Amino acid sequence: MCIKLIGFSVPEDSPVFSFINSLSPIQPVKSIDPVHSVQSYLPSIPSIFTSPHANLRESRFLIRNSFSDFSKHESSSDNVDESNLSTGVLNAVRLSRCTVIAQENCSIICSLNEATVDPPDECATLPGNLPQPEQYDPGSPNHNIAPCFGIKMDFKLDIGHAPLELVHFVQNGLERRKNLFVSETEFLENHPPEQNRDEMVGCEWENLISDDADSLLIFDSNNESEACKGPSEKLEDSSKLAGDLDCSQKTQTNESSGRCVQTASQDPSVSCSKENGKQDETDHTPQILSDTCQSQVVLSDLIEKTANGTSDHIRLGHKVDSQQQRGMRRRCLVFDTAGFSKKNLQNSSNLHSSASLLSNEKMASDDKCSRPGTSHSPCVLPGIGLHLNTLATTSKDRLITQEMLVSGKQLISMPCSVGPFAPTTSGQKSKSLSVEKDMSSNGNEVQNLQIMHDDASQVPALGNGEELNQGSPKKKRRKSENGGESDACKRCNCKKSKCLKLYCECFAAGVYCSEPCSCQGCFNKPIHEEMVLATRKQIESRNPLAFAPKVIRTSETGQETGEDANKTPASARHKRGCNCKKSNCLKKYCECYQGGVGCSISCRCEGCKNAFGRKEGIVLIGAEEIEQGEEETNPCEREKDKPDDDGQQHANVKIDENHSSENVLSVTPLQTRRPPVKLPLFSSAKPPRSSTLSVGFSPWLFTSQPIRKSEIPLPQHKLEKHVSTALEDDTPDILRCGASPSNGVKTASPNRKRVSPPHNGIGLSPSRKGGKKLILKSIPSFPSLTGDVCEDYPMNYSNSSFCSSTCS
DNA sequence: GAGTTTGAAACT
DNA sequence: CAGTTTCAAACTC
């Protein structure tokens, strides 16, 4: 049938023929009015976002869709037999694609979705494709070759923007289809299907099938609109990719949906085409969903095609992006997507979601940060500010790779590693985040991810983490976007500091100001590197720890201990502690809270109610958290309840020590168990700082050694003294822990000052008193974290510091 | 979006 | 080193 309709004969033996046959039966499972179908899609969109379930499904879809889309496209071309079907398929594919893209965008922006991360790359690559409606045309011979994404994205847009083409397509679909068939057949011949991919695809489809087809469809439609616009826009402005995309996504999503509808109504011709396309889509999609077997078959074929398409995308991305990071990202993303999808199939959605969240956040932050800074000058400045903790990850990446893109990938990869991404990302990341890789390789990643995830779930205030993300994608995404994304986009808003003081988050983070910044009279730009460096030096001379991450996240360091990672904060600033008086350490005014870290002894805060851990009761709280876990949100109250006595603290420390001793708690006594909570907070609250690996990266590690003196100056309270000693001890422990000298570097952490003498062994410096000893035990764990970090950090730091100079 | 609050950074 | 001022983010309305 199909063959005849098309007008060209296809050998029965040819894979294409088999495809067609398989597809033909699928045809119109559901008879849906094209118009209604289209409309239904549009309206459904909001519902999708609203329903958390839908979101979850979406995430799955996205991942799956990315593959399926390609396959679908191709399949659609295969389906050419039925003009309607072909268009419908194309539309469906596009829809799915769009969803993928949209999610991706969201993920980028929001950093919530795992899958999204990968897809964005594709989208990025797509840009080249987007422009043309032709690409859009399923029938276009070129369709197979390249720009599947663009086509997909275009679906709605095309209708509105290039209705003529659509019409033309419908009319002249036969010829194009023929061409498509030929191309497809060629592809099939040239590119034998990969079993693995097929299997994966099949899995995806199965999953999709399991999911509600309706939800999927609806979701897709929404996504399509968003994705379509988003990608196109993205393509247009490569520079703004992340931030712009996010923003565009938000606006686009709404607009796109609106446009699509409007366009349909506006142009009769368009509407017709749409209807046809929709009909086809509806028919095909349902079929696919309904018939797993068929879908699988198609998928397998599609997979092959997909593989081709991905390669194409990759190629495109290279061409387009070859110059800069963007290209890198795209590449990575593409790879990630492939890997990701696989992982998704394999791994449970939960882990992915959790991981994705973190990773996404990181990515978002990285992207934002990196883009501006990296694009121009690779580098982030050596120093890491509070933000930088989050940035730190970025900064690390930057420092290490100097390519923001890479860093972003790395970040993403972290979570991804757990999931599908790991493979692709791991390679790229390897440079920057050895630790992360290690974790992933060891399976620790999973733990970390889980931890993160748990945290998210636990921390209500910040966000629900996966649930949020999955739940209502838009809302969640927006939240994340608002939080992470917006933060990343916002960046600094300096007016008088010229972005050359620590007031400037960018400067503090060691990053050049970029587009997202709304600063005035900014000198924190590659052009003024010298000035920036000089200023940095001045500030560092004044306070060696000035650029040290305020808070070090354990999670990142978590590496080996992983979960416990939270432990320490290590950054000099954090060690220095906050000085909150009115915020009770319950608001972002508090650096500790902002960093998602509990207050430590070094903090001079008053009425500390830090949810992550009180100054005094932190340790205890941490234990409670561990036990209770659920109440993390209420830690403050708990803490409040708890007495602040030093004795308690010591006791806590001891407890921690016990734990840490086993796990190597890098955790500072206070922070030790909070971390989980922190992570979530980071994601929701301020991803930037917390999210990152800050620990290792902070430049201060380098400085730290020199800085040690600086640490000394830090005010210490009674407890602080003990703590400080303990910390110092800790740092040495860290050093100890790290068999490698690198650990020693880590010791550079402010704590080290005193630590320097430290013995690698657990032995604390004698100077510290018994209390100290206890602390020391706890400390060791902490060091581990720092140790890892230190290794990276020194590298980074040196690089970063040099970076600015070298980069320019 | 404007204004206020907050606490770190910078200055004296 | 302590106190004050400056600054920009965080927060509120």
Descriptive overview:
The chain has helices at 2-6, 15-26, 34-50, 52-78, 83-110, 114-125, 133-136, 142-145, 148-161, 163-190, 195-210, 213-236, 241-266, 268-290, 292-321, 325-346, 349-376, 386-401, 404-418, 422-432, 434-442, 444-458, 466-471, 473-490, 505-509, 529-542, 554-557, 572-576, 591-594, 618-628, 635-641, 646-663, 675-684, 687-691, 694-697, 700-711, 718-737, 741-747, 752-755, 770-807. The protein is mainly α and 808 residues long. The chain folds into 3 domains: 2-23 and 34-344, no CATH class; 348-547, no CATH class; 554-795, no CATH class. The termini are far apart. The model is unreliable at 1-7, 25-174, 192-488, 554-573 and 618-808 (pLDDT under 50). The protein binds a DNA duplex (12 and 13 nucleotides) through loops.
Provide the gyration radius in Å. 27 Å
Q: Please count the helical segments.
A: 40
User: What is the arithmetic mean of pLDDT?
Assistant: 44
Regarding quaternary structure, what we see is single chain
Q: Largest sheet, if any? A: none
Q: What is the total tally of β strands?
A: 0
> Level of helix content?
over 70%
Total number of domains: 3
Low-pLDDT parts are: 1-7, 25-174, 192-488, 554-573, 618-808
**How large is the share of residues in beta strands?**
under 5%
Shape: elongated
